[in-house]
User: Fold this.
Amino acid sequence: MTLFQLTLKNLRRRRTRTLLTIMGIGLGIGAVVALLGLAWGLEDSWSDAYKARKTDLVVRRSAGGLIAQPFSEEITTRVRKVPGVAAAAGLLTEVLSIEKVPMMVVSGREWGSFLWDTLKVVEGRLPKDASERGVVLGTLAAEMLEKKPGDKLGLEIDEFEVLGIVDGGAVVENGSVIVALPILQEMVLKEGDINFVNVRLNDHDADPHTVAKLIEKQAPGCRVDIASEVLSQNDGVKTFQAMNWGTSIIAILVGAFGVMNTMFMSVFERTREIGILLALGWKRSRILRMILLESVSLCLAAGIVGVLAGLVMLKILEFMPWMQGRIEPAVSWQLISLALGLAVAVGLGSGLYPALHCTRINPSLAIRQL
Amino acid sequence: MLPKLAVPANRLPLMPDAPADPPRSEVVFSLQDVRREFDDGHVLALRGVNLEIRAGEFVAIIGGSGSGKSTLLSLLGALDTPSSGSIRFQGKEMSEMPDLGEFRARHVGFVFQSFLLLPTLTALENVQVPMFELGWSRAERQRRAGELLQAVGMEHRLDHMPDKLSGGERQRVAIARSLANEPDILLADEPTGNLDSQNSVQIMDLLCRVQREKNTTMILVTHDPSIARLADRVITMKDGQVIADQPADRMAPSSAGSIS
Assistant:
C-alpha cells in the first residue's frame, strides 16, 4: 500500500460526493477549455488568414473595435512608397447577414492586388475585372450558403452572381464572401474607403518593426501591426478574451469552493481516523501531504473530465452556424496542459486549508470521538 | 502475493529474541508532579502524578471511570501533553522533544479498546500504517505486516476489511499493528473492554506473550482487577492521583475477579 493508494481509497469511500465534486470543478475546467479554445482559435484563425494571404503587416485605424474603422484608400498609395514595402493591398471588410447566415465576413479586395493571387479557384472563376458584379465564395461560405457557381446571392439590397468557389488556405478566407473592392464600397456606402491595408515586405532587407514605424509616419491616425499579432492587439479581441477569462475564473472559483467544501466535510468526518494516524506515529507533514494528494487527485480527475467536456463543447460549437467560417477553435497541448495545471493549482489551493486544519488535530481527543 | 512465511504462528518475528534474563533496571518513564487540566482548569484529570516505570515491566493501571488512567496513558504515549510537571523518557524531557510524532513512530505501539482500525483498509494494510514513517520499502512493509498477522493467528484474514472481522479478530489485527514499528513501549487502553470473556483471555494471552518474548515495556489500562493481576505491578488511580503502586501479587484477593 502506498500513500496514493490510501488517498484513492479515501476518495472512493463517498463515491457520489466525489463524483459530484469532480463534475462541479470539471465543468469549470471545461468552461476554461471551451472559452480559451475559442479565444485562441479566433486569434489563430485570423493569423492563419494573414499567413495564407502572405501578408506581413496590417495597417488599420488606431480606433478599436473588432471590425476596424474605415479610412481613405489613398493611404494604400502612400504605403506602397515606403521603403521596404514590396506590395500593399487595400481591403474593406464587413460582417453582414447574408440570406440565411446571420453573420458572414464580406471581403472587398483591391482589384489586381496580391490578395487575389492567393485564392485557389476550386470551381468556376474569379471576376474578370473590378467592375464585374459577381462574387466568389470561400469553400466554407459556399457550403453554408448552399451556393454553386451560376447561383444568385442576395447581398444587402442587391443580387449578385456567384462566379466561383475558392480555397483561401485558412478558415477565415474560406468562410468569406469575396468581391472586388469597388463593389463592396458601393454596396455599404463607403466609396473611397477601406479599413485595412495588407502589406508585403521585401524579403531580404525589410525589418517589419522598422517598416511599420515608417508606415505609421505616412499614415497619420493609423497603426501598423505585425500580421500574426493583429488580433491580440485588437481592443475588441482583448475585451472578448477578458470576458472569457472572467467567466472562466468565476467557474473555477465556484468549483474550487466546492472542492474545499468536500475536503472539509471529508476531514471532519475522518477526524478520528486522522487522530489514529497521528497516534500511530504519522508526522503532521505526511497527513498534510495525504489531504493535499486527495484534493489534487480529485481536481486532476476533474481536469481530465473538464478537458474532455471542453473538447466536446468546442466540437459542438465548431458546427454552429455563427462559428463556421470565422473561428476554428484552437485545441492544443498548451491548452490541455494549462487546463490540467489549473486543476492541480485548484486542488492545492482548495485542499490547503482543510489539510492545515488536520495538522492541528489533537490525537488524544480525536481518537475518543465517536 | 505474500511470500510463504517460515515463522511459526506462535512466534513473533519482530526483533531479535530477548535475553533470557533481561536487565530491568533502566528507567524508561519518570513522571514528576504531572498534572493535566481540561476546560481551563475546571476539570482536573491528573493531580500531581509521580512514578517511574522501568524497561521490560508489565504495569497495569487500574481505577474507576474518570480516575485519570486513560489520560495518564495518553501522556505516556505522547498523544497529549501535561498542563504542568515533567515526563522523562529514557532520561529525556518529553516536552523538549522536537517531534512527538517521531517519538510515537519509533518507540510506541498502541492497542485501543475500540480497536481503531482504519475502515477503508484491509487487515494487511492496517498493519502497514505505522511503518510509513520508518522508511521501509513497500515490499518490506507488506512482508512484515504479513508476518505479524501470521504471528497473531490472522494469516487467513489478510485481505478482510475490519467490518468483516469479529471483535477478537479486530483486536488481533490491532495488536499486530501495534507491533509494526518494533516498539520499546506497548500501551494498551482497555484492550479487552469490547470483547467477550473467551476472546479477552486469548487477547491477554497474546499481549502477555508479546511482552515476555520481546521484553517490551507494557503499560495496560484496565478497570478489571483480574486482568491487572496478570501484570508485574499494579498502579491504582482515583480522582487523578496514584493511590497505590504495588506488585500484582500483593493485590487484595477480593479485588481479583475472573476473565474466564
Notes: The interface with chain A takes residues 74, 77, 79-80, 99, 101-102, 104-106, 108, 110, 112, 116, 118-121, 125, 128-130, 132-133, 138, 141-142, 177, 181 of chain B (CB under 8 Å). Chain B has a mean pLDDT of 86. The longest helix of chain B spans residues 197-214.
